[in-house]
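Posting this for the archive.
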Amino acid sequence: MQNTQRFNSVIPLEGCFNFRDLGGYPFAGGVTLHKRLYRADDLCGLTDRDMVTMAALNIGCVIDLRQAHELALRPHPFAEKPNVDYCHIPMNDLLYAQGRPMFVEMPSSLSELYIWMLRMAGHKIADVMYAIIAHRDRPLVFHCAAGKDRTGVIAALLLELAGVCREDIVGDYSQSADNMAPKFAQMREEALQQGGEDTPEHLLGSAPEDIVKMLEVLQVEYGGAEAYLEKIGLDHEDIRLLKSVLCTQEQTAVGL
């Protein structure tokens, strides 16, 4: 397994805990490009100093995967910011169809949720990919609340499409729980103080087996990321452009 930590150390921010570059992962044609795609947790707590860092990264587009009720509670700082395109694409809106959660009980594992996303939220995943393609000329960040579930599924699909090995995709995913541990501890304490219920431990994790099970379904049911993206509506040119965000044309020709 490659040393993913040297590729994906967290970019230090005061108000965000899981902001990482998807560049630097080896594949057959080279390594994924740095400073093109970033994954992150909630950006709503960014400080003025963090905004200077974001400007230095030349972020041109922010894709917010959170649900409408999350956005209402924590409005996005980039929604009205000039020179940055803000795209709100709620990944799991079908979970709240008719005003109630689709899962009557908490999922028994995160893999159950991730597999549901593949099977039921393909139209939203396609929208995310189209947004990435449309904004491929500048660095882009996609994020949700914790930067591990909705964001993790998108990141895994992109890395698999680029030809990154399974072990590194899993390694990228599994970093999130450690990165978010201080934030999760604070959130749990606040919830308990307010008389709320504690979140089950497994829903705060990023255990390797959860993303592995999703990747297995991706391969067995769809034939891998590229075939999956074709099934949800992307054509060959869309996929070529999507690959170009993480790989140069020369790398794409050699490795993919």
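The two ends are 20 Å apart (CA to CA). The chain has eleven helices and seven strands.
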